[in-house]
Known about the structure:
By secondary structure, the chain is mostly helical. It is built from six helices and two strands. It is 55% helix and 9% strand. 10% of the residues are buried.
Amino acid sequence: MPRPLGELEDAVMTRVWQWNRPVTVREVLEDLQQERSIAYTTVMTVMDNLHQKGWVRREVEGRAYRYTAVSTRAAYAAALMNEGWAQSDNPAAALVAFFGMMSQDQREALNDAIRIVQRDTPIAAPPEEGADGTGAQER
């Protein structure tokens, strides 16, 4: 399970996920500087840390690296939710509490997700009927 991203790690990964293409430290820096004062070396260190943690892969391009996300933001969010649920000693109660915190839009998204999973999950074939019609096979 991934540890939650720190505030600056999340700001960097948000850009990597949103842009959905290989990015350089310079590109991320310039975008972050629209919101805050931050040094090139700080962004470079964060991106290197994200690489070491397995969040991004990188390829050399000239004298710089281009970074690409290893997984999606949705997969990250799902892993965090799964970890939170796994920490509970009463998973059903945790789900009830979680669902109670959801907005109407979030509940609708949950219902959509459930329909997709149910649609994509193969239905098990019923057992073959035996000669007596009970579903038990003769041996």
